[in-house]
């Protein structure tokens, strides 16, 4: 009897291992409660002493709605602050700041209106007291800080060639080394960040820088009576008596008539570089 050949066991079956499914990590939500103001707060501008009584006698305000000047006073038992709308038995009450502060609770809306309408309020042009708005004050300070940071970052990140027109505008010596120019601009950016940032988008700044360099390189000359081409001594624009020649030249170069002069100055300076 023929012997059967043994079969090769072959490759063992491979098991398919599924890759683990990545699960999204859910960000933890931090709950917070924003403060709810139940009162208004006012403070005396300057030194008010321990106790300060707000003047009420003869206090008048222009009422826009009625187009007339009206007298006002605070009477707790009256819904209106206007004297002509109050009853005969109205009792006036003193409004007193203690240690320079006055807190007006939510349940005294007429006192709030009185304080907001009072001519001594800073928002109405007065100089006696102002409302304390911590949220608004914090936002103002935050905006100021962000503006300062943006101005400083421009000094740090901008190419020096982009900073040179700004330097010329602020009378910074551009013949100094790069670090010194940046340092001087940094001081300017810190002192007046808003003006510094607006200079980057100002056509007046660019024109003034071009004109100043053209004068430094004797392409033009600036005199009290006018601005002239240096080589031909021909007049570019006359300067009225009492006006600054640089200011007049800048304004002229930004007009349709003076645009060709500005382009010519830029081309001449380009050839010198």
Q: How large, in whole angstroms, is the Cα Rg?
A: 37 Å
Number of strand segments = 10
Give the strand order, joined by hyphens, for the main sheet.
6-1-7
Low-confidence segments, given as residue ranges, are: none
Structure overview:
The mean pLDDT is 87. The longest helix has 24 residues, at 134-157. This protein folds into 3 domains: 39-132, no CATH class; 139-200, no CATH class; 202-273. It contains 8 helices and 10 strands. It is an alpha+beta fold. It has a 3-stranded antiparallel β-sheet with strand order 6-1-7, with helices on one face. Strands 8-9-10 form a 3-stranded antiparallel β-sheet. Strands 2-5 form a two-stranded antiparallel sheet. The protein is flat, with a radius of gyration of 37 Å.
Quick structural overview:
The chain is of the alpha+beta class.
Key structural traits:
273 residues; alpha+beta; three-stranded antiparallel β-sheet; 10 strands; flat
């Amino acid at each position: 009897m023929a012997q059967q050949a043994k079969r090769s066991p072959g490759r063992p079956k491979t098991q398919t291992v599924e890759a683990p499914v990545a699960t999204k990590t859910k960000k933890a939500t931090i709950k917070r409660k924003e403060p709810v103001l139940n009162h208004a707060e006012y403070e005396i501008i300057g030194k008010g002493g321990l106790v300060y009584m707000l003047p009420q006698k003869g206090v008048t305000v222009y009422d826009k709605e009625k187009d007339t000047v009206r007298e006002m006073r605070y009477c707790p038992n009256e819904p209106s602050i206007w004297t002509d709308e109050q009853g005969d038995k109205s009792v006036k009450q003193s409004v007193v700041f203690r240690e320079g502060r006055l807190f007006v609770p939510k349940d005294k809306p007429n006192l709030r209106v009185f304080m907001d309408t009072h001519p001594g309020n800073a928002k109405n042009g007065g100089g006696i007291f102002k409302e304390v708005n911590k949220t608004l004050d914090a936002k103002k300070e935050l905006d100021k800080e962000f503006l300062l940071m943006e101005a400083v970052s421009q000094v740090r990140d901008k190419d020096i060639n982009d900073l040179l027109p700004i330097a010329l505008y602020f009378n910074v010596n551009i013949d100094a080394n790069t670090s010194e120019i940046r340092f001087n601009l940094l001081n300017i950016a810190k002192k007046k960040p808003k003006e510094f940032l607006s200079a980057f988008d100002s056509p007046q700044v660019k024109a003034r820088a071009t004109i100043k360099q053209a004068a430094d390189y004797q392409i033009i000359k600036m005199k009290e009576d006018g601005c002239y081409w240096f080589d031909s001594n021909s007049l570019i624009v006359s300067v009225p008596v009492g006006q600054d020649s640089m200011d007049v030249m800048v304004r002229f170069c930004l007009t349709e008539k003076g645009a060709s002069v500005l382009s010519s100055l830029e081309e001449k300076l380009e050839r010198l570089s």
